[in-house]
Amino acid sequence: MASGKQRQTEKSNQTLIWALGVVTLLAVIGAAAFWAGKAGWFTPASRVAEVSVEAPLVREIILYFADSQGEFLIAEQREIADCPDNEQCVRAVVEALIKGAHTDLIPVLPPQTRVLGVVFEDETVTVDFSRDLVTRHPGGSVSELLTVYGLANTLAVNFPHLRQVRILIAGQAVESLKGHVDLRAPVPADFRYGRPPLRIGGADDPSGASPQGRMP
């Protein structure tokens, strides 16, 4: 029969063998994980998060501002965050127009103006503005034309299904902003107010006639 000392020695040897086996197994697993990572077989959690984060969706738009002399409209391309529906998209585009150009172009809407509401009816969009659009507007026939058609052209080029815009001020219909452009009916886009420089009814006006929408 084995002595107590021999049994203790055998038990210690078994424990040592078991421990060595565990260490060897962990070493194999670690090495496999290392080489798998080097080979791209798995993605660490940090990289999973990195891959799963998508870039925000953007929407390309075109805005119309006045040239540096305030005589005609010039288009400027812009990117805004994408929007889920037409109402929010129209509001976002008009608010971008209010904020002004990223270049030296002149805004066509006073920067204090706020969009109070947007309503659709067939091919017409009604945009309700705060009174700042009137009270903060500099006035003048050309300036008023550029405001109205800068808005109408911007909406038409970004939303082809919208053919005209009705402008309200604080929920109310108005005849005009400053007495020059007729707002009693919805205003369609009119791209004659781009280049060349606007000269109403003068030698530089290729039509030789007063532009559509002027007050009688």
Automatic annotation (TrEMBL):
Q: Where is this region: Disordered?
A: 195-216
State the name under which the record lists this protein. GerMN domain-containing protein
Residue ranges constituting the GerMN domain according to the UniProt record: 90-178
Matching InterPro entries: GerMN
Residue ranges annotated as transmembrane are 16-37
The answer, when asked if Secreted is one of the entry's keywords, is no
Segments forming a coiled coil:
none
Q: Per UniProt, which keywords does this protein have? A: Membrane, Transmembrane, Transmembrane helix
> Which organism encodes this protein?
Geoalkalibacter halelectricus
